[in-house]
Amino acid sequence: MWKFIVRRLVITFPQIILLSLLVFLMAEMMPGDALSGLLDPNIDPAAIEEQRIKLGLNDPWHIKYADWVAGLVQGDLGQSFKFKMPVTELIEQRLVNSFWLGVATLIFTYLIAIPLGITSGRYNDTWADQMITGYTYIGFATPLFIFALVVLWIFGFQLQWFPTSGSVEPGMVPGTFEYVLSKIQHLLLPSLSLALITTVNTVQYLRSEIIDTKQKDFIITARAKGASESRVYNRHILRNSLLPIAAFFGFEITGLIGGTVFVEQIFGYPGMGQLFLESVVGRDYSVVTSVVLLFGIASILGALISDIILSLVDPRIRIK
Amino acid sequence: MSKEMLEIKNLKTSFRIKDNYYAAVDDVTLTLNKNEILGIVGESGSGKSALAFSVMGLHNRAKIEGNILFKEHDIANISPSKLNKLRGEAMAMIFQDPLTALNPLMIVGEQISETLILHKKEMSQKQRKEKVIDLLNKVGIPMPEHVYGQYPHELSGGMRQRIIIAIAIANKPELLIADEPTTALDVTIQAQILDLIKTLKDDIDAGIILITHDLGVVAEMADRVAVMYAGQIVEIADVHTLFDNPLHPYTRSLLNSVPNTQEGQEELHVIQGIVPSLSKLPREGCRFAARIPWIDDSAHEENPVMHEVAPGHFVRCTCHNHFHFPDESKEDSTHGIS
């Protein structure tokens, strides 16, 4: 068991190194650099060239990569042009916001998915199942950004039940009860609209897993033992059907860090997704590379967590 | 008290395909005595397993007509809670494929304990564990304490089949149904498992229905044999009569297709055609008629019924009186039949 986890951890290191190299090379290949475009066009090109040499912008790529990595390990991600602050600090703020948005979304996702998936799978082809599958098809077909806009318009602007932007009411003192309450109030609308749409995947997954497990031979064995219908469901079908959902959980964690570009943009929620969009539009390269690298690391870690969870819950995966 | 412990009367098990019901088991009448092994043979699709599942009440969406009388209950019309009390306690089943019949996420000890938890509520946890270890010993599992905590995927096919047998015999059932218990196992393991079933039969004093398509298994194990074709029993007799004096054309074809190494026969006899699918079954007349087209139509009964040709020997339809294999002369084929 521990051997498996250690082995799985060891292979993540080359993955992360490869990822950093890719992110760096892609950023290199983007046209322009920090000194193109931002400067007064009347400045002597020779002076700009001199500045480039001074800043190391003309160095060969491997030297620049080494410099960049050296900065990364020390937690120095460079300066943001747009926000005029260190990228590390900028990301820290946004990461916390995205994390809480992710947690709230996850809670709603599972609160919706598990009861619906179980009902739909257990009573498949009944009217309840048809209603739930109907909802999942609508969920699949509805673009998130349109749904989020409609939700914002109805509950934010028309009914004014929820704030329409930001992550906390201005002027609140961190640490007070009101501050936490305001945070939660700002979270509800974006996380709920996100969960309502993205949960349909999990509902469908759980439904088809249950229908699949229902027909397995070991379910007949359980019935032949004299197990009642509810025992068959609780002890045999449900546990086996939740496996892939548990495995999926690791990837959901990626979402905690990555945030969601659309939802954060629409609800004006200052998280990682919004930061990513702003930095791409504003050609804020040091932010873009840092954010992309972080997203990449998040997915590698997500896969790692998934594998570990799966090995914990499924005895067949444990490699000796 | 009579020796009969299970009586199936005119059982018809039908499945719904689109808007029609089709019978997978049709007009099956048979009895099982105490401490007897009744073999049921037939090729794939003949309704053997559907019959077994009907007796265990395991069909979810089938329409079951007729009677299955067992221990003052009629399983064809029984409430789910009463059925659950019988299943695992008075009747149990051994399944065909040991690779899929165990829950992959539960240790085997827990899976055997489950049937004790369901039927022997008074047992303490410690007693249960002792009983499970005892059962593992009984079915010939080495190092039972160790195997108790293992998952099914850590065990071989033969071991898993032993676990399934342990589950089945845990509460000493009176009726044991073995649905092709050795089909998925290799030959050496087959012999061991069959031996085990025979030993356990005497131990728990159960009546056993042994379903198989392997005539060798039947010859070795069964006391009486029922031959099924297309959902119906076509011939039923004690095992010696059936092998020495088979009457129904289907039984004779089956026996004829067993390879005979002694006579240096090179070509294998095969029965032409296949069992028709459920929806294409002829509903009238002799169901085997289509596979013996060289036999004249007038030889068959219009509504074939079981005829008792000798005490305890029943054959369906009259066509057996006129049957001969295509490469035999007619005179040869009728020997032994008066």
TrEMBL record, chain A:
The keyword DNA-binding does not apply. It is a multi-pass membrane protein. Keywords: Cell membrane, Membrane, Transmembrane, Transmembrane helix, Transport. Its main location: membrane. One of its GO terms (biological process) is transmembrane transport. Pfam families: BPD_transp_1, BPD_transp_1_N. GO terms for cellular component: plasma membrane. CDD domains: TM_PBP2. It is found in: Cell membrane. The chain crosses the membrane at residues 9-27, 99-120, 132-155, 187-206, 241-267, 287-313. Gene3D superfamilies: MetI-like (1.10.3720.10). It comes from the Bacteria. Signal peptide: none annotated. Residues 95-306 form the ABC transmembrane type-1 domain. Belongs to the binding-protein-dependent transport system permease family. NCBIfam families: Opp4B. This is Peptide ABC transporter permease.
From TrEMBL, chain B:
Residues 6-255 form the ABC transporter domain. GO terms for biological process: peptide transport. Its main location: membrane. It comes from the Bacteria. InterPro entries: AAA+_ATPase, ABC_Ni/Peptide_Import, ABC_transporter-like_ATP-bd, ABC_transporter-like_CS, Oligopep_ABC_C, P-loop_NTPase. Keywords: ATP-binding, Cell membrane, Membrane, Nucleotide-binding, Transport. It is a peripheral membrane protein. Gene3D superfamilies: P-loop containing nucleotide triphosphate hydrolases. GO terms for molecular function: ATP binding; ATP hydrolysis activity. NCBIfam families: oligo_HPY. Belongs to the ABC transporter superfamily. PANTHER family: DIPEPTIDE TRANSPORT ATP-BINDING PROTEIN DPPD, OLIGOPEPTIDE TRANSPORT ATP-BINDING PROTEIN APPD. This is Dipeptide/oligopeptide/nickel ABC transporter ATP-binding protein. The lineage of its organism: Bacteria, Bacillati, Bacillota, Bacilli, Bacillales.
